[in-house]
Design the sequence.
């Protein structure tokens, strides 16, 4: 555990006093201390291109009066810096008449270990794996023209101090291993990317030469794309494979169910609570409690324990994801979804691991039922316009379906749909739910946070595919 | 108050001295401080205030051709000592890379021009609030506007870049940014749009009334959109989208993508890649320019580059490391382009709209559908259908697709270039793209 005050003129008692005094008539608020250590090591173009180590320390002080949030952060941990921040908060919230709500539920559950993944493996050992990846891929296939492989690891220690002296702490490990390969054949170039990660040590991921599986998968995707044809353009049926394609759920539905957009009535879902928003058989949860997953958290960034929140149950909208601020203003409770990228940012309601649960059908049945459409196996990024509900995502591996059979691979195309109606177009839900490999980062209001997704194979009756072939 | 040059210099020289003492053959340090204050409004009342005071240091140490780097926000002497020791130890075991080195001494910037990038004016939060009140009042005049959000950010930064070859320079800069997002609703749809202004000097930012009015008008125009059928059609890109193509182009001609062989523009220097009416310039010394730089992130002097002349690619954007790999000299573009723009075309905006009887006018794209390796492009789009030069109706839930190799050759530019951001483009038309819709 980090001791945030041992190199400063600040004592724990000073912090308690300043926090209690500043938040006296506020409705909520806290001071959040963060100490993060991170590394990234990159192999590219046959060489170790960079090895970078970062250590970051700072605090963010937040005071809330009704629906107004005042925030101030600094990376100088000193009495002066804290007092300056307190003054800044008071100058925004000139007269406050709030009631400070001290209640924060407690938890004894922990979803990851107190480890520092960076220290658990020597730099030499990490460099060795990256070099092995490079040699393995280049020897394996002569069309390999470029290999990029990277490790990134982080340990983030946080302490939240609330008015009255209540303190909550968490230590969060996170790692990621990524391989990207570019092939060139007959003048054509294509890339394939694959990665794994989560809240454990590097060794947990790399045992039994698991790095080879990551290489194989990146190579497979790139090879498929070398033979791809231009994608079709227009409305058609789409079968989504299990796992990572759940980024569709994340973009199309997830963001629209975050508390802030609904309190502000800017989400297309804000007046649909209790109503049917998806086909029968569609159940979606957002779960922060899955052991060692990338999107899991023991407590959120306001100190609330995370939970498994049912968002849509059998097609009916049940819950939004809430942080403390939006929950209070909407007369409900926090779902432990209050997150921030780091101490430089305010808390927002965010997703954790967003999952569509399994149904009864098989992927085979779905493919067989499609006369003309596409089968999308993997995606790059996606994006949503919360207000209009329109969302997109980009295929990185997809195939044509003709007369119930999978055909040629097709070039990366964008799929576009309408969030509030897309789940009503789901006509089959598979029995093969799978988690993504632990690679997602969600961006919102300029803040990136690690997230997970999961889903079974699904059949969507109508989506627009943005290819070039009419 | 923002840290002064003396403070930043003392931190930088402490790090350089220590790295040298430990045995580093070369070292380079960047120290920066940035203070920003933001006030946000929502539906005509205060929503949020945010003050940010950030210090950052990054250090690279070299042992001959071995290199490693660290960064931190904790500038206390004992922390810096621990980090530099760690960095040095890491450097020792990092493999050599023959292209690693500080920039060539003769390329380092010597005469630092004053580009007037810093305005010391400070706008108290109460004044920011007054600005946003006026802005939102104007934005919400029309009843169809059901939600307004706006923000005002004042930012002041200072930095020092120093290396063991004696380079030690830095300067202050400032920015003032105001933005407005409005949501409009009618019986058919709910739509969102925005407008913003960002300048180095407070006196140059747009008037709040103008900003609010433009945001509201743009949003209301988008109500009741239709989906159009799939088609091959000419597309006009609004300035705020066409400038994005320039950013993509800058990525494709960066020496790192070229050296790695992962750009569709590799080996295209001296070749026709755009239609012959297209000229692209990168000008670092624009007075008060949002992208202006006296030197690049390695200290190398920057000069104006005519990247594309009559459609022919003249130059890549080159940094030291990738330059050495390509056997080219750095042209001061470590960290990317500066003030990058398409020079004006010959057609007026109005005439461009009349180019064909039916044109799609795109005002927003979503998704990350650009592929640097192949040049393939496919994104979600919203905009308007234009018939005989007139805006007919809003369009959404469509995608547009093409490949930059062909798209670049089919560009027609209007003559309405303005210098508003660091990347600027006139309105642009591209023929022969595919729209996927109904």
Sequence:
């Amino acid at each position: 555990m980090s001791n945030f005050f041992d190199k400063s003129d600040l004592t724990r008692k000073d912090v308690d006093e300043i926090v209690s005094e500043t938040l006296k008539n506020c409705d909520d608020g806290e001071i959040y201390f963060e100490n993060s250590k991170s590394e990234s090591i990159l192999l590219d173009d046959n060489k170790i291109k960079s090895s970078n180590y970062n250590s970051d320390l700072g605090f963010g002080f937040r005071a809330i009066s009704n629906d107004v949030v005042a925030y101030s952060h600094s990376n100088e941990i000193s009495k002066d810096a804290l007092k300056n921040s307190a003054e800044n908060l008071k100058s925004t919230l000139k007269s406050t008449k709030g009631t400070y709500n001290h209640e924060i539920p407690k938890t004894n559950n922990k979803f990851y270990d107190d480890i520092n993944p960076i220290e658990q493996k020597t730099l030499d050992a990490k460099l060795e794996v990256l070099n092995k990846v490079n040699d393995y891929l280049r020897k394996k296939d002569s069309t390999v023209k470029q290999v990029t492989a990277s490790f990134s690891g982080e340990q983030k220690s946080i302490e939240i101090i609330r008015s009255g002296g209540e303190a909550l702490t968490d230590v969060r490990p996170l790692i990621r291993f990524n391989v990207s390969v570019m092939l060139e054949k007959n003048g054509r170039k294509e890339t394939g990317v694959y990665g794994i990660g989560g809240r454990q040590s590097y060794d947990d991921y790399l045992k039994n030469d698991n790095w080879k599986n990551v290489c194989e998968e990146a190579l497979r995707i790139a090879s498929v794309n070398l033979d791809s044809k231009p994608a079709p353009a227009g409305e058609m049926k789409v079968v989504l494979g299990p796992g990572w394609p759940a980024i569709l759920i994340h973009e199309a539905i997830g963001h629209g169910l975050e508390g802030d957009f609904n309190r502000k009535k800017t989400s297309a879902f804000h007046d649909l609570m209790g109503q049917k928003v998806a086909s029968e058989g569609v159940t979606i949860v957002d779960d922060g409690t899955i052991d060692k997953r990338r999107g899991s958290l023991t407590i959120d960034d306001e100190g609330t324990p995370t939970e498994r929140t049912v968002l849509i149950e059998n097609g009916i909208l049940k819950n939004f994801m809430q942080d403390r601020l939006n929950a209070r203003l909407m007369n409900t409770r926090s779902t432990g979804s209050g997150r921030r990228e780091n101490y430089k940012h305010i808390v927002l309601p965010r997703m954790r691991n967003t999952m569509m649960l399994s149904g009864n059908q098989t992927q085979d049945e779905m493919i067989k039922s499609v006369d003309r459409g596409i089968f999308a196996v993997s995606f790059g990024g996606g994006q949503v316009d919360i207000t209009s509900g329109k969302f997109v995502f980009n295929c990185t591996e997809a195939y044509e379906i003709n007369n119930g059979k999978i055909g040629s691979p097709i070039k990366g195309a964008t799929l576009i749909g309408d969030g509030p109606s897309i789940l009503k177009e789901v006509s089959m839900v598979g029995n093969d739910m799978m988690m993504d490999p632990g690679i997602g980062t969600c961006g919102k209001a300029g803040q990136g946070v690690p997230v997970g997704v999961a889903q079974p194979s699904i059949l969507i009756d109508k989506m627009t595919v943005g290819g070039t072939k009419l | 108050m923002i840290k002064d040059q003396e403070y930043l210099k003392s931190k930088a020289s402490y790090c350089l001295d220590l790295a040298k003492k430990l045995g580093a053959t070369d070292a380079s340090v960047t120290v920066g401080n940035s203070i920003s204050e933001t006030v946000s409004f929502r539906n005509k009342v205060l929503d949020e205030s945010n003050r940010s005071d950030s210090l950052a240091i990054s250090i690279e140490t070299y042992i001959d051709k071995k290199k490693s780097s660290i960064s931190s926000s904790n500038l206390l002497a004992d922390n810096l000592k621990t980090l530099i020791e760690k960095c040095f130890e890491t450097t020792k075991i990092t493999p050599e890379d023959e292209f690693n080195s500080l920039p060539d001494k003769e390329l380092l910037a010597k005469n630092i021009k004053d580009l007037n990038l810093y305005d010391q004016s400070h706008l108290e939060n109460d004044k920011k609030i007054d600005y946003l009140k006026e802005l939102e009042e104007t934005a919400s005049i029309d009843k169809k506007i059901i939600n307004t959000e706006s923000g005002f950010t004042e930012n002041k930064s200072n930095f020092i870049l120093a290396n063991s070859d004696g380079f030690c320079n830095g300067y202050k800069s400032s920015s003032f940014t105001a933005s407005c997002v409005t949501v409009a609703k009618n019986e058919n749809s709910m739509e969102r749009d925005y407008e913003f202004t960002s300048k180095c000097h407070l006196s140059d930012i747009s008037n709040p009334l103008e900003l609010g009015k433009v945001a509201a008008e743009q949003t209301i125009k988008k109500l009741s959109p239709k989906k159009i059928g799939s088609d091959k059609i000419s597309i006009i890109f609004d300035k705020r989208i066409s400038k994005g193509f320039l950013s993509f182009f800058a990525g494709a001609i960066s020496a790192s993508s070229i050296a790695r062989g992962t750009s569709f523009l590799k080996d295209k220097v001296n070749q026709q890649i755009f239609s012959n009416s297209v000229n692209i310039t990168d000008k670092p010394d624009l007075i008060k320019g949002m992208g202006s730089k006296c030197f690049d992130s390695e200290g190398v002097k920057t000069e104006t580059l005519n990247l594309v002349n009559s459609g022919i690619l003249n130059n890549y954007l080159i940094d030291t490391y990738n330059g050495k790999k390509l056997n080219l000299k750095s042209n001061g573009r470590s960290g990317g382009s500066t003030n990058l723009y398409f020079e004006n075309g010959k057609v007026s905006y109005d005439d461009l709209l009349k180019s064909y009887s039916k044109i799609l006018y795109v005002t927003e794209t979503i998704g990350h559908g650009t592929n640097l390796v192949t040049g393939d492009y496919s994104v979600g789009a919203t905009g308007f259908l234009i018939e005989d030069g007139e805006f007919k109706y809003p369009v959404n839930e469509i995608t547009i697709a093409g490949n930059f190799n062909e798209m670049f050759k089919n560009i027609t530019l209007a003559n309405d270039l303005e210098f508003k951001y660091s990347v600027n483009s006139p309105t642009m038309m591209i023929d022969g793209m595919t729209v996927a819709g109904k």
